[in-house]
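Feature request, filed as a ticket because there's no other form

It would be nice if the structure record came with a short human-readable summary line next to the tokens. Right now we just get the raw output. Example of a typical job, pasted below so the devs can see what we mean:
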Amino acid sequence: MTQIIEISGSDSYHPTCPFLIQTVISTGGHQRRPQRRNPQLLFNSSRHHRSKLTTNTATMPTELQFEALHRFENKSMAEEAGRFSRRSDENLLQLWRARDLLKDEDIDPLRDELEARGLSKQVAEISELASVRDLYGALPTAPFTYFNSSVPALWIRELWLRYKTKDGSSLNARIEKVQRTGFGSLGGAARAEIKYFYEFQGHQYVGRVLRDFKVDAASADKLVYDHHVGEEIQIRVSREAPELSYYPSGMGFLDPISLGLQSLLSGALVFGFAWLLLRSITHAI
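Raw output as currently delivered:
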């Protein structure tokens, strides 16, 4: 089955690829513009005269393809619009104060979310001020991370909890605390934490999501700022040891591996220096 498409030879010619044609397909009384494609074409045309193209309709975009593309675009727009929907007003306003540090594609969704919450006046006032160089404002002091060895240690802890609860019970827990600290001095890591309570077989327990990080700040921000006190989350609890619970942090393994190797190297250098110093002292005696 073939379909006849009227095109203009001079209008459809592409300077870099003459076979890449953009045209309008006439289908059932309405017009639709297809994506660029390179179907098998039978040419009988001149660049200066109108001509006809014969193409196999099997190569044309189907209604299902257009529908799938439409759903994908709608999903992308919804994800973009909801990017900041779980953040607190305070965090969103702080992000707007540091808007020059954001990616270009984050500016409009952030402004839309602030205006949807009725914070247009604050947005206008902040916009008159120069952008600050701090995305977070005042943050709690970072804990001592033992020369960043806590980064791989807390990653291993999360993997261990996931393993111990893999056949456990799923239940709801209520968040009591969410916190992100600043970075420590002398290159120290920061910490992201969620503390929650849950009840299992008539007893109450406390669980924590703890991760230290240096590079993966985006995942840490998502963990902390996309949750709030009082929110219910679904966790997994070990049946044999109900004090063990697991909630995924969503943070990766690059920080733990790189900083773990760095910690091992630093420790080896420290112990090596101490051993050489001790040996020199004993030889002097």
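Something like this underneath would help us a lot:
Strands lie at 2-8, 25-27, 30-32, 50-56, 169-180, 190-200, 203-213, 232-237, 245-246.
DSSP finds eight helices and nine strands in the chain.
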